Every structure is written in structure tokens, then in C-alpha cells.
Structure to design on (266 residues):
């Protein structure tokens, strides 16, 4: 009876070991692949590669901002999407300052933020960033061109004009200025920028990390991966237990065989 119970117990543990192993095999493979990828994030440039899948972006709550500030001057469009700034389709990076206008002066594109100016070439190369240290008036709200073809800005302390070198700023409230006002982006440009903007919201590194930890499915996924980890512990423990029992049985079998051979010789 005791041997029968032991056989049933060993068989039961072996069956559970096999079933659990089959069940979590795919998750073990997933953990291994994502773990290897995360160990080589720098080499694979996962932190600089972005996800474009709309379903995944929606799952992470990554959407294009409802309010987009945009200005136009000829063929030049400058827009700000939350904190990200674009010159036509060129990504200029993030800025916590507010976009207030754009002007084109002698082949220089002047992007006005509320506390500094950005000067770009028509090819989109940054020439210079001018701020308070360059005597640019504080709290700019508008930029424009006067009837004398001078750059002018409306600031908190008044209206100022500057020379072509942007070195001298004069308070000139009498300047007749054509101000640059906001304009909605053309539909085709806006759609292209939506794709570009969303593509900068979720890195492949973040996605793989969330797959590895289960956070892709929020807390449910985290607890599930914890459960998978416990099953792995069970597999290791049950595998060791089965191996130990088999070693003991083999040792007893060899010992009994040795005794039988000894008795036959005697």
C-alpha cells in the first residue's frame, strides 16, 4: 500500500511538472528573448527606436494634442505640438517656451518663442539662439515686419524693433507692423506631422520592458508574470525532487543487484 501511494505521488508530481512546463513554455521563451534584448539596449538602439502602431499608442494613451499652435510665412510653417516644435516637417526638439510667431528676414527664418528667438537657414540649420543675454525683450507675444522692413516684436514692456544683426533693440511704439498671426496647418502637412509626433511617443525599449514585466497589461499583467515566476519555481523544485527520487531508486536498485550477485556467488 505504501509503495503504491508513493508511486501515485511520484506520478502525480511528474504529471504536474510536465503540464506546468508545457503551459508556461511560451512565456519562458518570451522572458528569455525580452531579457536578452534589454541586456543589449544600447547596441540595438532600442531607446532611440519608436513604435508607430496606433493600437499600441492608443493603449498607452499617446495621442496628438488637441491644441496645436501654428504660424505661416510663405512656404514656412512652424508649429508646436505640446512641447515639441516643428519647422515644416523638421523636428526641432522640445521646448517649454510658447511659440508666438515666425518671420522671414533676408533668407533667415526667425522663430519667436515667448522668451527667446531661434534663427534658422532655409535648409533648416540652426544659426543662433538669442535670449535675454543678447538683449532680446522679455515676454514676447508677437513678431512681425515693419513697413520699413525691420524685425519687430511685441513684448511685455512695449514694441521693439531691431537691426539686421539683432544686436540693438529699440523701443518703437510708433512702428507700423504687419504681425504674424496663427493659422491652421494644411490638412496634408498636419497628417504627416501627426504620424511623426506619435512616432516619438513610445520607444521599443519601453515596450519590451513592459512585455518582460507584464506591465503591458497593467497590474493584471504584472500579477500574471508573478504567477509565471512562481510556476518556474515550482518547475525547478519539482524537477529537483523527481531527479532526487530517481537517484535514490537507482541507488537502491544497484545495491539490490549487487546483493543478488553476491548471494549467487556464495
Amino acid at each position: 500500500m505504501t509503495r503504491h501511494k508513493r508511486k501515485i505521488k511520484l506520478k502525480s508530481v511528474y504529471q504536474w511538472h510536465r503540464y506546468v512546463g508545457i503551459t508556461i513554455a511560451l512565456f519562458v521563451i518570451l522572458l528569455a528573448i525580452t531579457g536578452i534584448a534589454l541586456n543589449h539596449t544600447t547596441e540595438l538602439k532600442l531607446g532611440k527606436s519608436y513604435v508607430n502602431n496606433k493600437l499600441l499608442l492608443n493603449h498607452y494613451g499617446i495621442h496628438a494634442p488637441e491644441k496645436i499652435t501654428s504660424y505661416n510665412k510663405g512656404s514656412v510653417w512652424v508649429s508646436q505640438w505640446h512641447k515639441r516644435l516643428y519647422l515644416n516637417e523638421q523636428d526641432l526638439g522640445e521646448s517649454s517656451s510658447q511659440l508666438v510667431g515666425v518671420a522671414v528676414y533676408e533668407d533667415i527664418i526667425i522663430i519667436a518663442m515667448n522668451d527667446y528667438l531661434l534663427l534658422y537657414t532655409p535648409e533648416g540649420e540652426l544659426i543662433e539662439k538669442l535670449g535675454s543675454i543678447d538683449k532680446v525683450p522679455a515676454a514676447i507675444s508677437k513678431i512681425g515686419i515693419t513697413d520699413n522692413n525691420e524685425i519687430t516684436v511685441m513684448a511685455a514692456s512695449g514694441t521693439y524693433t531691431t537691426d539686421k544683426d539683432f544686436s540693438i533693440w529699440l523701443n518703437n511704439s510708433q512702428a507700423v507692423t504687419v504681425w504674424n498671426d496663427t493659422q491652421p496647418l494644411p490638412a496634408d502637412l498636419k497628417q504627416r506631422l501627426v504620424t511623426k509626433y506619435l512616432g516619438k511617443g513610445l520607444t521599443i525599449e519601453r515596450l519590451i520592458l513592459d512585455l518582460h514585466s507584464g506591465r503591458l497589461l497593467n497590474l493584471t499583467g504584472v500579477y500574471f508574470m508573478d504567477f509565471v515566476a512562481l510556476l518556474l519555481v515550482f518547475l525547478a523544485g519539482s524537477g529537483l525532487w523527481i531527479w532526487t527520487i530517481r537517484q535514490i531508486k537507482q541507488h537502491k536498485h544497484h545495491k539490490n543487484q549487487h546483493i543478488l550477485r553476491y548471494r549467487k556467488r556464495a
